[in-house]
From TrEMBL:
Cullin N-terminal domain location: 52-185
UniProt name for this protein: 411_t:CDS:1
Alphabetical list of Pfam families matching this protein: Cullin (PF00888)
Family, as annotated: Belongs to the cullin family.
GO biological process, one term: G1/S transition of mitotic cell cycle
MF terms (GO), sorted A to Z: protein kinase binding; ubiquitin protein ligase binding
Domain of life: Eukaryota
Classification via InterPro entries: CACUL1 (IPR042652), Cullin_N (IPR001373), Cullin_repeat-like_dom_sf (IPR016159)
């Protein structure tokens, strides 16, 4: 999909760069909305991704890079990814009910996997020539790392609690989907519950650092003390919800959890 540049083409002049920078603001406003759209499934009902020409977006990004603005474009891209994930994390952490948290996390995770493919396609030129060629990184790693730091790290206590209680939860199949999607995103995710990942994912190929990840799980398990004292692992609102839930469990087996 790369657009070939002819040998006769020269790099932009200083005057051309001034015009390019002026044009960039309008270009980025449109592009940043598409990036947010790809990251937020709740917006896609009214703004389907299929209505946007991915080829046109790719070409626009190509010309932006050709004009020497690839560094600025990459920084802006990282910022909008981080800001959008922070917004989604705020929604996630506001969930009061365990089932709501599970469904919301599953939706954010599965959509992020799709967004990695979508954005990886339209930003392929920037990825190949700048992120990889100059920074020795890649866009997929950037997006996975942003998710791990912004969403997963903030939710690891809740997830470890949920994973330990999986067979008591009516949404066990959805939880298994979360396990599979987390591993698809990053095999390092098994630190949340190595035994569960190994039992859910058929033919799992464990990462080379699996022993380090098992050690991390044991350390976090001791830190959060989930099984012996769930109040220690979660926020005050979550602990209150667990107190109420424990009272109801004897009669209804319903589970409630706050962020």
């Amino acid at each position: 999909m790369d657009v070939a540049m002819g040998d006769s083409e020269t790099k932009p002049s200083a005057e051309h760069n001034t015009v390019a920078i002026a044009d960039y603001a309008a270009f980025w406003e449109r592009l940043s909305f598409f990036v947010q759209l790809a990251l937020r499934s709740d917006l896609q009902d009214t703004h389907p991704l299929c209505l946007y020409s991915h080829e046109e977006l790719y070409r626009s990004i190509y010309w932006t890079c050709w004009r020497g603005l690839q560094g600025r474009l990459f920084e802006d891209l990282k910022n909008v990814i981080r800001e959008t994930l922070e917004f989604l994390n705020g929604q996630l952490q506001s969930c009061q009910d365990l089932d709501d948290f599970i469904m919301k996390f599953a939706a954010i995770l599965s959509n992020h996997l799709r967004a990695i493919d979508v954005l990886g396609s339209i930003f392929a030129y920037l990825d190949n020539t700048y992120i990889n060629g100059v920074l020795n990184d890649n866009l997929r790693h950037v997006m996975v790392d942003s998710f791990m730091q912004t969403i997963l790290k903030e939710s690891e206590r809740q997830l470890m609690y949920i994973f330990k209680k999986i067979f008591e939860n009516p949404n066990a199949n959805k939880i298994k989907d979360i396990v599979r999607d987390l591993f698809k995103m990053s095999s390092d995710s098994i630190y949340l519950n190595p035994l569960l990942f190994e039992s859910v994912i058929i033919g799992i190929r464990l990462p080379p650092n699996v022993e380090d990840l098992r050690m991390k799980y044991r350390q976090l398990d001791a830190k959060y003390n989930i099984m012996t004292n769930p109040k220690c692992s979660l926020s005050k609102r979550t602990a209150s919800a667990i107190d109420e839930d424990d009272c109801k469990a004897s009669s209804s087996k319903r589970r409630q959890l706050g962020p």
